[in-house]
Amino acid sequence: MKELNDRIPIIAFLSGRGGVGKTLLSVNLARLLSKSRKSILLIDLDFYNRGATALLTGTVNRDAITGYALFKHAVTRKKASGDLASKLKGRKLVQAAEFLFLLPSTVTGEIVDWMEYRCESQQIAQFLSQLVRAVAEEYGIKCIVIDCRAGPDPLSIAVAGVSTHTIIVSEPDRITWDGTLNLHRYILNQYPREAWVEFLINKIPEKYELDKIRAEYEEILGRFLKSLRILGYIPFEYDIFESFGEIKFVIDELARTSMSRNIASLAIELLSEIYPSLIPEEARSIEAGTLRGASRGPRSTGLRWSRIVMMAGIIYTVVGCSLLLYGNWGLRVLLAEPIRLVGAVVAGTGIIVLLVGRIAGWFRR
To answer: What CATH number matches the domain at 2-296, 3.40.50.300, 3.20.20.80, 2.120.10.30, 3.50.90.10?
Structure first.
């Protein structure tokens, strides 16, 4: 595999448990790289949850090439390399976007046998090596992104042995981080020298300060895993959570969100030095949040409007109260002196507008 790795990068996303955003990251990184107009392949190796497959295709027919069919074919035959090449010959991959291709996990509705748990680790590693070589040569692929199943799955662990970049996605809580370290130990046990593992902390809640989270996890790595690094810290964004499954690519639809900026930063960090041709021109604009015409997302727009409404309410309230300060006032005074009546109305309106803006801001959160 070393000769293939020298030609194309293979980036794998793993996680100690599900729900950390691994599929979202892999799909959008692959989409961003495809904007370089180089052929990028996303492989969905999660045969059971089918996250990337469901997001990008919906339905996979029985005549389609799938990762599970190739795996089943390979592990039941001795000459898997030649067989895989012949299975791919003349057949088309799923095209998810321009220059972005998908090897789906399974056929929709297919009942999957847990055969990877009955295979030797060497057999699985051999299959993966032959798979990436065969697809790269058959389809002219310049980079492969792999979305793995969560947990210490045999396929996921084997992927770490063939990838140029193995990224374990975690969340900033003790339970998830413990699972992350557990998966890392499984990988080191299998590949003590070959695997190079890095971490990514995703979905950081608003209640946490990014600087404090960064300092805490860098201290942990400094004490126990000095040779490893955390590639990024991505805050939780309600728009991303709300739109998951509704839009295919966050990097296209919500390019000015923190998620998109971090994905662009990740691509530049991993590939700009050795594979600069895979970095699209707009990646640095996305990273800087200056891409023209890009959306910040409905939540950001809504919050801006709610803040404008709140500011208007404050102004109304201040002006109204200022008018009321001149002299004594009550119902008779207000009726007798129009200026104070206007002040009372303006102040009341300001308070109402302020409350409306505040309530709108709460709902946008």
So the answer is: 3.40.50.300
Distance CA 64, CA 108 (A): 10
Q: What is the C-alpha separation between 365 and 361, in angstroms, rounded?
A: 7
Assigned token pair, 214? 């960064």
Angstrom CA distances, 232 to 46, 136, 170, stand at 24, 29, 11
User: How many CB atoms within 10 Å of residue 127?
Assistant: 25
DSSP string, 201-224: EEEE-TTS-HHHHHHHHHHHHHHH
d(CA 134, CA 115): 22
The model's pTM is: 0.79
Query: How far is 198 from 187, CA to CA, in rounded Å?
Result: 12
pLDDT of residue 42: 97
- In DSSP terms, which residues pair with 44 in a beta bridge? 147
Query: Domain residue spans in the chain?
Result: 2-296, 300-364
Interior angle at CA 31, CA 25 and CA 32, nearest 5: 90
pLDDT digits (tens, 9 = 90+) for 246-305: 888 999 988 888 999 999 999 999 999 999 999 999 999 999 877 655 555 555 555 555
CA 79 to chain centroid, in Å, comes to: 37
Give tens-digit pLDDT for 190-221. 887 656 789 999 999 888 888 888 888 888 77
- The number of angstroms, rounded, from the C-alpha of 71 to the middle of its chain's C-alpha atoms is 26
